Amino acid sequence: MSIKFANKEEMQPDSTEAVSDNPKLPQMHEKELRPSRIKGAERLMEEAPNPPKGAKDYMAPASKRKPSAKKTRQPIADQEGRKTASRKAESYLRLRVHVENGEMSVLDVKEVEGPLTMPDSIPSGFAYEVTLGANRVAVGAVPDLGAWRGYPRPQNSPGVTGQHHLTPMTDAEFNVRVPRTELSIAALPRTEIALYQVKEDVSDKPLKLSSLGEQFGRELREIARLKGIHVEKLPKPTQKKLRQALKR
Length: 248
Prior knowledge:
Layout: H1 8-11, E1 37-38, E2 41-42, H2 76-89, E3 91-100, E4 103-113, E5 125-132, E6 135-142, E7 147-150, E8 165-168, E9 171-179, E10 191-198, H3 212-215, E11 220-227, H4 236-246
Antiparallel strand pairs: 1-2, 3-4, 3-9, 5-6, 5-10, 7-8, 10-11
C-alpha cells in the first residue's frame, strides 16, 4: 500500500475561502448566529446590562465610563524654583557693632540668606539682646569679647610662662544677628541693643520671655546699650544696605 502526500500548494487553503471538513455543511461566514433559548424564551444579552443586585464593586460598561483626569507631574525645575524662592524669603541681618567705653554704634550691616536659630540659654562670656519696646527680637552669645587671648611661645623662647593669658581691650567689635522680618525702617529708632557680661553660669536656665536684665539681674552685668538705630547717623554705604534690606 502506497501513501501519496500532497504538495505544499495543495495543502495551503485559499485565505479568501472558508475551510470546512464537510463540504455539504454551510460555511462559517454564511451561518447566522441565533439567540439561545433561556427557559423557553429567546433572549439576547443587553449591550449595557444593569448591575446585579447586591453588587458592591461593580465596574460600569466601557461606553459609560468617564475618562479619568490624567495626573500631570510638575516639572522638577518649577519645584526647585519654589524651594529657592522660599529660601530667599528667610534671611537675617548681621550688624557689625563697635563698643568703646560703654558706647555702641553700628558700623556695617549685611543681609544673610537662611533662617536664624535663637539659643535656648546663655553660655558663659558675653551676650547681647535686641529689643523692640517690651519684645525681645534677638539674643545671642559673644565669646571672649573685650579681651585679647595670648598663647605661650615655644618652650625655648625667653620669658615663657607656660600659660595663655587675657589682656583687656579698650574697645571691641562683635556681630549682632537679627531676623529681617523683625525690623523695619520705622521701628529702627525704637530698637535697642544691650551688651551683657555673664558673671555666673546660667547655661542650665532656659530663657524666658522677659528681658535678660529682668531674668538674670544678679548673674549679668550690663556693659553698654545702644538706644535706637538712627539710619541718618550711619555711614553712607551702611545706610544704603540697610534701607535696601528692609524695603521688602
